[in-house]
């Protein structure tokens, strides 16, 4: 079974074609800058890369371009688009309606549309991807895999904000959490690596990429997570501010005399690593600058690792203990510095890092970084959201319930 996995953003479409027999990625790529000057396709088949500079007006053109290269004489991996058995779409927000991945029907499309107020930038882009595939491959079944679904097991006392209750009833303002596909994948993988059933484990997953979030996963179910109503809450990120006193955006608006859209931009695009350091939103740059004595880069790193440590403590308390701590995503998989500092001083909890192993498990490797005597296992598990989307799509095609 060949599955096309799509992750559609407002100006980009990322794709992978996965042969489910052996779970092999046949081709992958991205169409960038859709509707903007300088649009292009980057396509990879095996180790062969091709970059095509081309005007791409909208998502329909992007999908057509992707199929042109998927069926290309030299760079293609299928002889016709009909060889694709099913398409799995990443959908950012499923609100309270979706607790797992689903086959896309007209009713499901309507329900995804109903979630647009919760993700006004993301869901319309995801829908554009679904509509474009519907046009290109009308007969092919499609599955939606939601970023929020895994966290729908949270209980009201963990997902409610202490705001007037009507805001929840009328506008569904509550914590949803994101990166659910990643938290689900790495927690299940961690349990398998330990040879334990996930139903017996208390796990904290630490997804540190450009976006960053943590989750408390008790006996296989997410009971809390750092992102909230939007992906802005919780850990601070490349350009997002994370937790703030809620009065601060009001003060910024008042002091800078800027409007709602400008405040939104400041909190989402000008804060986090770039805001604190004034240098970069890339962790590698901060580590390098800090090692050369840049004080603001050093502060950014101290804040970052302190914040991860605080949530490890909070989530251990929330679960009544901890068995496994899992690091993943760009920073979690590569920065031994961030991992070491985030776990520093957690011996009282039973977390002891083996510094040498920690330095070795980088660059997409999977492995344990805790020392032999550590009561709590600390693992690095590279995330693979595309594979989860493909697996869920296959499960639904086979008439099974996704994990
Ligand atoms: P992601 O969104 O998962 O692709 O992660 C992107 C983040 O991973 C960026 O902040 C990168 O700086 C960070 N990253 C990638 N490689 C490294 C590395 N070797 N050391 C530290 N951070 C890294």
What does this structure look like?
- With 403 residues, the chain is an alpha/beta fold.
- The chain has 2 domains: 2-150, Nucleotidyltransferase, domain 5 (2-Layer Sandwich), CATH 3.30.420; 197-385, ATPase, nucleotide binding domain (Nucleotidyltransferase, domain 5).
- Helices cover 38% and strands 19% of the residues.
- An 8-stranded mixed sheet has the order 5-4-3-2-1-6-8-7, with helices on both faces. A 6-stranded mixed sheet has the order 11-10-9-12-14-13, sandwiched between helices.
- A hairpin with an 8-residue loop joins strand 13 (367-368) and strand 14 (377-380).
- Helix 1 (59-70) crosses helix 3 and helix 11 (295-319) packs across helix 13 (336-343).
- The longest helix has 25 residues, at 295-319.
- The protein is globular, with a radius of gyration of 21 Å.
- The mean pLDDT is 97.
- The site of adenosine monophosphate has 12 residues, from helix 10 and helix 12.
């Amino acid at each position: 079974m060949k599955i096309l996995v799509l992750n559609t953003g407002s100006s980009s479409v990322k794709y992978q074609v996965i042969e489910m027999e052996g779970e092999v990625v046949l081709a992958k790529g991205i169409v960038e800058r859709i509707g903007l000057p300088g649009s292009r396709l980057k396509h990879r088949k095996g180790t062969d890369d091709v970059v095509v500079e081309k005007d791409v007006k909208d998502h329909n053109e992007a999908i057509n371009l992707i199929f042109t290269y998927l069926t290309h004489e030299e760079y293609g991996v299928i002889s016709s688009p009909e060889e694709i058995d099913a398409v799995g779409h990443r959908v950012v927000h499923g609100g309270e309606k979706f607790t797992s991945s689903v086959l896309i029907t007209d009713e499901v499309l309507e329900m995804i549309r109903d979630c647009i107020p919760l993700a006004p930038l993301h869901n319309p882009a995801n829908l554009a991807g679904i509509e474009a595939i519907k046009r290109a491959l009308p007969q092919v079944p499609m599955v939606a895999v939601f970023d929020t679904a895994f966290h729908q097991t949270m209980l009201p006392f963990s997902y409610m904000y202490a705001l007037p209750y009507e805001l929840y009833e009328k506008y569904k303002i509550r914590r949803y959490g994101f990166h659910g596909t990643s938290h689900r994948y790495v927690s299940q993988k961690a349990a398998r690596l330990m040879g334990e059933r996930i139903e017996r484990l208390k796990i904290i997953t630490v997804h540190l990429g450009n976006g960053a979030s943590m989750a408390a996963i008790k006996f296989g179910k997410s009971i809390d997570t750092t992102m909230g109503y939007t992906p802005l809450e919780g850990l601070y990120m490349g350009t997002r501010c994370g937790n703030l006193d809620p009065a601060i955006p009001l003060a910024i608006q008042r002091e800078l005399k800027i409007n709602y859209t400008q405040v939104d931009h400041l909190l989402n695009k000008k804060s986090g690593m770039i805001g604190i350091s004034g240098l970069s939103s890339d962790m590698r740059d901060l580590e390098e600058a800090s090692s050369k004595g840049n004080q603001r880069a050093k502060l950014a790193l101290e804040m970052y690792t302190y914040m991860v440590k605080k949530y490890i403590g909070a989530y251990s308390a929330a679960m009544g203990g901890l068995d496994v701590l899992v690091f993943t995503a760009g920073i979690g998989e590569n920065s031994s510095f961030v991992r070491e500092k985030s776990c520093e001083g957690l011996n009282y909890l039973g977390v002891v890092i083996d510094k040498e192993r920690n330095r070795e498990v980088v660059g997409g490797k999977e492995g344990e970084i805790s020392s032999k005597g550590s009561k709590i296992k600390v693992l690095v598990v590279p995330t693979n959201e595309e594979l989860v989307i493909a697996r869920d799509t296959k499960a639904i095609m086979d008439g099974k319930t996704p994990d």
